[in-house]
Specification:
By secondary structure, the chain is an alpha/beta fold. The chain has three domains: about 160 residues, Cytidine Deaminase, domain 2; about 200 residues, Dihydrofolate Reductase, subunit A; about 180 residues, YbiA-like (Tetracycline Repressor, domain 2, Orthogonal Bundle). Helices cover about 35% and strands about 15% of the residues. The protein is built from 20 helices and 20 strands. The strands form five sheets. The chain has a nine-stranded mixed beta sheet with strand order 12-11-10-9-13-8-14-16-15. β9, α8 and β10 form a beta-alpha-beta unit. α13 packs parallel to α15, α13 runs antiparallel to α16 and α16 packs across α17. The longest helix is centred in the first third of the chain and has 19 residues. Its EC number is 1.1.1.193. Pfam families: NADAR (PF08719), RibD_C (PF01872). Keywords: Glycosidase, Hydrolase, Multifunctional enzyme, NADP, Oxidoreductase. It is an enzyme of class 1 (oxidoreductase). It comes from Coffea arabica (Arabian coffee).
C-alpha cells in the first residue's frame, strides 16, 4: 500500500477524500472543525511535492464551497478544486485549485497550508484567488521568509477578501491540531529559515542492544525489508544524503532512492583525509551527482582522480558539520538525511546541525564489546545530561520499531524574523537589500524572477522553426544543446526536456545526457551557449512588462547570480565565479535603456558578446 508522508517521513493515513466531502453546519465549533479538516487536506496535498520544491515551501490549496453553491462562512460544503506546488518554477497551487474549481470558485473559501509567496513577481497566487471570485481565504501559517511574510495576506485583504490565519484570527483545540500539520509539513523550511542551515535528519538502524554492526563491521541487514523500503522514501524526500569516509570504506553504499519516487538526492561524502577507495559505487555519477567535502589540501592526486570521474570536490579550511551545512544552505538545499556512522553522527549532533532523529530498532541482539553504536562520544558523563527528543512518535514497521523525534523544537518564526516593513519601522536606516549589488539565485529571492529557472514561459521557434512555448528559459536553454542532432537518444532527450514538469527537471535531463553522452551535444555548443541564454532572457524580459520594469529599476546596481557552485553562470562561493548570467542581465538592461542599438544582439558574435560581458 502506498504511504502518504508528513514532514519527517512517517506514514499517515489519507486525511480527506476530495470526492467525498459534503457536509453542512452552522455553529462555530463545527465551522472550526471543517476549517481544520480542509487545512489538513491542504497540508496533505502540499506534502506530495516533498523533495521536489527545495528550497521552496510545500504548498497546497483546497477550494471548498457549500452544498448549495454559496460560500458563506460557517457553512462548509464540498471540495471543488485542489492543487499543490509540484516543483520550483511550476504553476502555483492556488492557480491550479481555482482552475480546477472553475465557476464554483465564486463565493467559495480557499484553504492554504502556508501564505503564498511570489515567484512570478506578479502576485500570481493572489491574483488567481481574487480573479476567481474567492470570498474567504484560510491560511495555516505566515510565510517564514522576511521579504514575503505577510505580503499576500495584506494583498488579499486589500482586495476585499476575508483572510483568517490559524492561531491568530481563529483559535480552538481543533485549530491547534491543524496548525501543527502546517508547521510539520514545512518543518524543513522553518528550520532552514531560522537556523540558516538545511533541515537535517539523522537516520540509523540498530539492534535491541544498541549496535549498528557486528564487531567485524558486518551490518547487512539489521532492519527489515519494510524498514529499508521506508528509508528509500525518506531519501526521496531529501535534497541530499550524507555519509562519512568510514561508511564508504566499510559498506560501499549506493545511497539511491530506488523506491522513493522520481527525485534522486545528491550523495555527499565527508572525509578529512580523503582516505577513500578508488573503486566505489558513489563514484558512479551517471544517474545522480556525488559531492565530496574534504579538508583543504587533502590528497590532491585523489582529488584529481575524483574530478576525472565527474565527482565534485569541495574543500574547507577546517572540515566540520556546521561549515558544511552552511555551505549547502548557500547552495539552496532544504533537507538533508544523515546516514553516517557514530563518529560523524556525534560530531553533527555536537555541532547543533541535527534537528530530528529516525531510529529503526530491530528485535535482534548481536553483542560485542567493540561493536559500533549509532552515536559516538558526546562528552556527557551523567544521565541528566542526556538529550531528550521532543514530540516523540512510535510506529511498528514490520518486525521493527521506528522511534522518531526532534532534537530541536519546530521554530516559531513570528517573534524572531520580522518583516521588512517591521524592521524598517524600527530602524529606518536598515535596508533589506544592498543598494549597489543585487544578488539573486533561487526564484523565491526578492529578485528571483531574474533567474533562468523562474516560472515564466517564453515563445521561441523550436528546432523546426515553428514557434513553441517553452515553460521557462531553462527548458529552452537545455533543449538547445541537442538541436540539429539526429541521434534518436538526442531526440528523445529533446522531447523529455520539452515536457519536463519543472525547470529543475529540464536541467537534470539535459545535464544527465550531456554527462553520459557528450558526443550527442551539438558541436558548436560552447561557442553559442551564451547567445542562446541571452536570447531566452531577452524574450522573457520583453514579453513580461513587470519583469522589464523590475530589471530597469536596478539601473546603477551590479547584478550577481549568487550560485555558490556554478562558476560560469554564477558568482561562486567567494566571488570567484564568472557571473555570466548577471552580466547578461546587465547587458540586457543597458539595451533596454537604449545604450545598445536595437539590432545589437543580432550582429554580435559569441566572442564579441563575451568580451563585452567581461568589461561589465
Amino acid at each position: 500500500m502506498a504511504l502518504s508522508f508528513s514532514f519527517g517521513g512517517l506514514p499517515i493515513p489519507p486525511l480527506i477524500d476530495r470526492t467525498a466531502i459534503a457536509c453542512s453546519s452552522n455553529n462555530s465549533s463545527s465551522s472550526h472543525a471543517f476549517d481544520a479538516a480542509y487545512i489538513k487536506r491542504a497540508a496533505e496535498l502540499a506534502d506530495k511535492s516533498a523533495g521536489f520544491t527545495a528550497p521552496h515551501p510545500n504548498l497546497g490549496c483546497v477550494v471548498a464551497t457549500t452544498a448549495n453553491g454559496s460560500g458563506k462562512e460557517g457553512r462548509p460544503g464540498v471540495v471543488v478544486g485542489e492543487g499543490y506546488l509540484y516543483a520550483e518554477g511550476t504553476s502555483p497551487a492556488e492557480l491550479q485549485a481555482v482552475e480546477s474549481a472553475g465557476e464554483l470558485s465564486r463565493g467559495a473559501t480557499a484553504y492554504l497550508n502556508m501564505e503564498p509567496g511570489d515567484c512570478y513577481s506578479d502576485r500570481t497566487a493572489v491574483s488567481a484567488l481574487v480573479n476567481a471570485g474567492i470570498s474567504r481565504v484560510v491560511i495555516g501559517i505566515r510565510h517564514p521568509l522576511p521579504h514575503l511574510r505577510g505580503n499576500a495576506i495584506r494583498a488579499l485583504r486589500s482586495e476585499g477578501l476575508k483572510v483568517d490565519v490559524l492561531g491568530e484570527d481563529i483559535q480552538s483545540k481543533t485549530i491547534e491540531e491543524a496548525l501543527k500539520s502546517c508547521l510539520l509539513v514545512n518543518a524543513p523550511l522553518l528550520y532552514r529559515a531560522a537556523n540558516r542551515v538545511p533541515f537535517s535528519v539523522l537516520k540509523y538502524a540498530m539492534t535491541l542492544d544498541g549496535k549498528i554492526a557486528a564487531s567485524s563491521g558486518h551490518a547487512s541487514w539489521i532492519s527489515s525489508k519494510k524498514s529499508r523500503t521506508l528509508v528509500f522514501q525518506l531519501r526521496g524526500r531529501s535534497d541530499a544524503v550524507i555519509v562519512g569516509g568510514n561508511t564508504v570504506r566499510r559498506d560501499n553504499p549506493r545511497l539511491t532512492a530506488r523506491h522513493g519516487g522520481g527525485h534522486l538526492p545528491r550523495r555527499i561524502v565527508m572525509s578529512r583525509t580523503l582516505n577513500l577507495p578508488e573503486v566505489a559505487n558513489l563514484w558512479d555519477v551517471a544517474e545522480v551527482p556525488t559531492i565530496v567535502a574534504t579538508q583543504r589540501g587533502a590528497r590532491k592526486s585523489f582529488q584529481k582522480y575524483l574530478a576525472s570521474k565527474d565527482v565534485e570536490v569541495v574543500e574547507f579550511d577546517i572540515l566540520n558539520p556546521k561549515d558544511v551545512m552552511e555551505y549547502f544552505y548557500d547552495r539552496g538545499y532544504l533537507s538533508i538525511l544523515w546516514e553516517c556512522g557514530g563518529t560523524l553522527a556525534a560530531s553533527a549532533i555536537t555541532s547543533g546541525v541535527i534537528h530530528k532523529v529516525h531510529a529503526f530498532v530491530a528485535p535482534k541482539i548481536i553483542g560485542g564489546r567493540n561493536a559500533p553504536s549509532p552515536v559516538g562520544e558526546l562528552g556527557m558523563v551523567e544521565m541528566s545530561q542526556a538529550m531528550e527528543l521532543i514530540d516523540v512518535s512510535y510506529e511498528q514497521i514490520g518486525p521493527d520499531m521506528l522511534i522518531s523525534g526532534f532534537l530541536q523544537p519546530v521554530p516559531d518564526l513570528s517573534p524572531t524574523i520580522p518583516s521588512i516593513e517591521e524592521t524598517s519601522a524600527v530602524d529606518p536606516s536598515v535596508s533589506p537589500y544592498e543598494s549597489s549589488i543585487i544578488f539573486f539565485y533561487k526564484t523565491w529571492d526578492p529578485y528571483g524572477a531574474f533567474s533562468n529557472f523562474s516560472p515564466h514561459a517564453i515563445r521561441i521557434p523550436d528546432e523546426n522553426g515553428d514557434y513553441f512555448t517553452w515553460p521557462s528559459v531553462e527548458h529552452y536553454y537545455q533543449a538547445q544543446k541537442f538541436i540539429g542532432v539526429t541521434d534518436p537518444i538526442a531526440q528523445t532527450c529533446l522531447d523529455e526536456i520539452k515536457s519536463a514538469r519543472s525547470p529543475e527537471e529540464a536541467a537534470r535531463i539535459g545535464r544527465k545526457i550531456q554527462r553520459q553522452h557528450p558526443h550527442l551535444v551539438r558541436d558548436d555548443w560552447e561557442s553559442v551557449k551564451i547567445n542562446i541564454m541571452y536570447k531566452g532572457l531577452k524574450c522573457k524580459f520583453s514579453i513580461y512588462p513587470h519583469l522589464n520594469s523590475m530589471l530597469l529599476s536596478t539601473a546603477g546596481s551590479v547584478l550577481v547570480e549568487a550560485s555558490p557552485h556554478d562558476l560560469f553562470w554564477g558568482g561562486g562561493r567567494d566571488g570567484e565565479g564568472l557571473n555570466y548570467l548577471g552580466r547578461l542581465l546587465m547587458q540586457l538592461r543597458s539595451e533596454f535603456l537604449g545604450d545598445f542599438s536595437a539590432s545589437h544582439d543580432q550582429s554580435t558574435t559569441h566572442q564579441e558578446r563575451k568580451d563585452e560581458l567581461n568589461r561589465l
